[in-house]
Amino acid sequence: MVGIPDDDAGELPKAYIVPKGDITEKEIIDFVADKVSPHKKLRGGVEFLELIPKTASGKILKRELRK
After folding, report:
1. Burial letters 22-34, b for 16+ CB under 10 A, else e
2. 3-state helix, strand, coil in the chain (%, to 5)
3. What is the mean pLDDT of residues 8-34?
4. CA 1 to chain centre
């Protein structure tokens, strides 16, 4: 998850997912909502990607996801 800028809340959590099979954005949001506290819910949404950008050492490039 990456924080997306928001005028009211400051940042909203957004998930970036490489899907394996058929899954919808709503299914992911509902699943996460059942597991986390209210301020951690995916109010920033869900975005499906083909590949998560990573460095050579394997760290996720969050600055690339924010673009």
Report:
1. eeeeeebbeebee
2. 30, 25, 45
3. 91
4. 4
